[in-house]
């Protein structure tokens, strides 16, 4: 991930997954040679089958990772397994997931994210 990738986000928005999955606005971020850090605000929770996964502890929070523990970039996602989160930054994907959420199609959004993550 580099600053150009964050500068090209769709409306400053990413998809964030931890225990919950959310369309998230990035309020600010920092990218250095050693780490990535960001502050996000939830715009919409993509509902999962287990209701425990639909209740984030905070509406706005910070997250980050040191590059030496990042699993790597795979299918336009950054995974920090030790920290427990994944983000998708691809503008086309984010826009599509946002539209599905607006249409009440959370189940389809989950399927698209799973398929997108697992594609070669």
Structure description:
This protein has 120 residues and is α+β, with helices and mostly antiparallel strands. The protein is built from 3 helices and 7 strands. The protein has helices at 3-7, 91-102, 106-118; strands spanning 13-17, 21-31, 35-45, 60-66, 72-74, 77-80, 85-88. Strands 4-3-2-1-7-6-5 form a 7-stranded antiparallel β-sheet. α2 packs antiparallel against α3 (106-118). It is globular, with a radius of gyration of 13 Å. The relative contact order is 0.20. The model has no long low-confidence stretch (mean pLDDT 86).
Search tags:
120 residues; alpha+beta; 7-stranded antiparallel beta sheet; 3 helices; globular
Number of helices: 3
The percent of residues in helical segments reads 25-40%
Q: Kindly, what is the distance between the CA atoms of the first and last residues, rounded to a whole number of angstroms?
A: 19 Å
Q: Give the C-alpha Rg.
A: 13 Å
